[in-house]
From TrEMBL:
EC number assigned by the record: 1.17.7.3
Name of the protein described by the UniProt record: 4-hydroxy-3-methylbut-2-en-1-yl diphosphate synthase (flavodoxin)
Stretches assigned to the IspG TIM-barrel domain: 6-247
Cofactors (names): [4Fe-4S] cluster
Similarity section: Belongs to the IspG family.
Gene Ontology BP term (one): terpenoid biosynthetic process
Amino acid sequence: MTRRKTRQIHIGQVAIGGDAPVSIQSMSTFTPTDITAAVKQINELADAGCDIVRLAVPNRASALALKQVKAQTDVPLVADIHFDYRLALDAIDSGVDGLRINPGNIGSMENVLKVVEKAKPKRIPIRIGINAGSLPEHILESYGGHPTAQGMVASALEHIRILEQADYHEMKISLKSTDVPMMVEAYRTLADQCDYPLHLGVTEAGTVMRGSIKSAMGIGALLLDGIGDTIRVSLTANPVEEVKVAKMILQAAGYSTYGAVMISCPTCGRCQVDLIPMAAEVEKRLEGIKTPLRVAVMGCVVNGPGEAREADFGIAGGNGQGVLFRKGKVLRTVSEDDLVDELMKEINQYLAEEKKV
């Protein structure tokens, strides 16, 4: 797969675009004024694998509180601002690493220049966030009176030109819609018209199951096209769940460079173990591992090791016992009750040996 070539920006210490890995972003459910809760959640997101966290900044108190939040976490923070350019200036003074702000929505060109002048010395990136549900009236009128992929791209290009006229190029772009085909078409279209990094997401995707499927379809399709530099899975759930799903999407698309990936077979008549809870237990125990690993949980001793030949480690259940294998080679036979423990023992031993190298 060939990645789309983009210019590179930095949000704090995280490189975006160019040859940098695709990064995961989420959003705090707390405003910065709730300092203790916001910091706790941001650090939980980081522990789950989140690279960048965005916070809503609805007023000046929130913008000023960012300074205290920033002092208590190493995670790059993005201030989400609408309409009032002065909040962007305050957020920059508070040490924020990035802004999510649409230049066309903060008033005159003079206001845009004030934000750019403040952001330029620190090269603080601005994300232009286009949402299909909030396109300006003149765009809607030009494209049939309703949201379209073409209208989203036209809106993005308008905002891009505003920043370019201010001689500022530290930006990334998002084109979000709850309609997956529209979102995919918009990103594919814009990808051919600029070289700025793209932030992918299906907005208002829904609850965990529905939102995960929609996000996997939209974000995954674009990643397989080589499009996308940061991603956010938007779920009506604890944002830690967003990070978990985002990691799974990156892993499934072949992008992930860290973490354990579990593969497991569907149950069938040959399965002689209670595979579903066994797979769930293994997946839970793998959550804290950041080393790239492929781990298989198979229900058939006869075919399991062969079918999961590319797995680094795996187990295959039988009648009262099962086998522990590595790279398709059987290591030993153990009792069914001990399969998961023995698998994790083998993995942890490998990880300990890797640390010594």
